[in-house]
Amino acid sequence: MYIKLDNVNKTFGNYKASDNVSFEIEKGKLIALLGPSGSGKTTILRMIAGLEHQDDGDIYIDGKLVNGISVQDRGIGFVFQSYALFPYLTVFDNIAYGMKVRKNSKEEISNKVDELLKLVGLEGLGKRYPDQLSGGQRQRVAFARALATEPQVLLLDEPFAAIDAKVRKELRRWLKDTIDKLGITSIFVTHDQDEAVEVADELIITNQGKVEQIGTPVDIYRNPKTAFVAQFIGESVILENYEYEKLNGFTKRDNAPKAAIRPEFVQVLPLDNNTEKSTANMKGKVVDTAFRGSNVELTIAYDNLEIKASHQIEDFTVKKGDEVYFKVTRLYAFDDDNAYTLINDILKDNPEMYYI
Amino acid sequence: MEKSNSIINRILKSGLITWVLLLFIWGVGALFYTDDFLPNPLVTLDGAKTLITSGTLWTDIVVSMGRVLKGWSLGLLFAIPVGLCVGNFKVISYVFEPFLNFFRFVPAIGFITLFLLWFGVGETSKVALIFYAVIFPVMVNTIAGVRSVDYSLVEAAESMGASKRRTFFTVVVPSAVPNIFTGARLGLSGAIICIVAAEMLAASEGLGYLIYTSRLYYRTDWIFAGIFTLGLIGFLADKLLRFLGKKFLYRFGVR
Q: Looking at domain A3-222, what is its CATH homologous superfamily?
């Protein structure tokens, strides 16, 4: 394994930022540390970088124990949330900083900076100062600067947090492609699920200083292992006290009184013109609708429950107050620790019901 | 219409109105008193003319400003490096800060007699006094500048392999430049205030000497001319300093 954390603990005062954190990362992978704010994800990143030091536990990079190695010598590249570009240096000098520290020759530096500027699509902007660039451009400079010293590991702290939504999407794509192209092992911190799922090969889900689950996005979406992951991933409706028994196709699972249902797990059908007859269908009333761009999120009242459903606009139109049929294809039942995926018994034989 | 608006705006912004108002009040006030007590603006201008034609005003300006510049530059040369070190190194700050926080409340004027005793009535005592007046605002601001450095810049430099020493010179010092500059400006005004006080006590030329000795000849108009010159010099010196700061230190955040 390329990067390995072994029982790492870190406390700030009374706050346990890392609680027995252990995980391993393969070389060349792009990993997202995903969790709510205060879950300790940035602390993990900073400890790998050497900007913070663990109270106990071991960190390995490329098979080498790095506990006592300072940030200067760890061979990492770090992209800060606020970019941390030197405002008094030009783009060129910002990128060249690390190479000047290494005493590379002038020619070497100039060639490398040009190459990096080309890589990040900022050719010809070397003479500009950071305040003459847009947010997205600054982010790219920060990225180029972190790469200039040819680090073994690239660490990015909320790399897209300060960029407006439109540019962010574009930049994510670009970052993923660029990192894939370079093949550098990278870890980035985010609290944005969409970002994590879209960009990362693997997710590490953190909560209250602990690692909850590690896996590919698909794996984590399909099989949340802990109660936290079941609730955190997706915008789930949570049912308490075995309420999920009221839904057609689900029976009680012992020791799993709660359930998380994602909007994607709920299918909606019109009352009329409906050729599909299934005992899984239930009749509910739409009490709220929320437009989500490509789809509409419906809140459906049924037997004292409120279920959220993601509805494609093209299928048929639904207004508030309409009655509809709906069925739940799957849900996550969980207790305080573990989560189990329950698939609708009635639909179990139907292979089309697979969603992530 | 728009054009005249912008002219009015510019006049308002230039502060010209304040000056006109001040001259007016001064002029009206002077009507009620003798020229020896409160000379009117025209009499003052006349007095200034006499001083200019005789050359004394120029000599006094040159002498005073020479002292200010000498003390101010020496003060900067001393206070900036010391401030940088105190701000950056904990151990030095423990030793130095109590001393700093005591003496910065003792005004330079309080030391005039002592400095005359120690350094004599010549130039040294005056330059030393200005030096004293300059170093405190510069040090205090420099220290504040060092301590307000964006820490992520320091971490960025270190993550690229920069040693503590290199980080100090390439991140901490440049980041402190705006504060250092503010300190230098405050130091300059402190220096001008202090030189007048020093020249009043012991000098044979300079603006302070001019103001102080004019009372011997009942030349209240000369006193006014001296005061006006001081204000003008301070005003222009600060303008010049800010202009130079903007021109050469803009990149470091001096505005």
A: P-loop containing nucleotide triphosphate hydrolases (3.40.50.300)
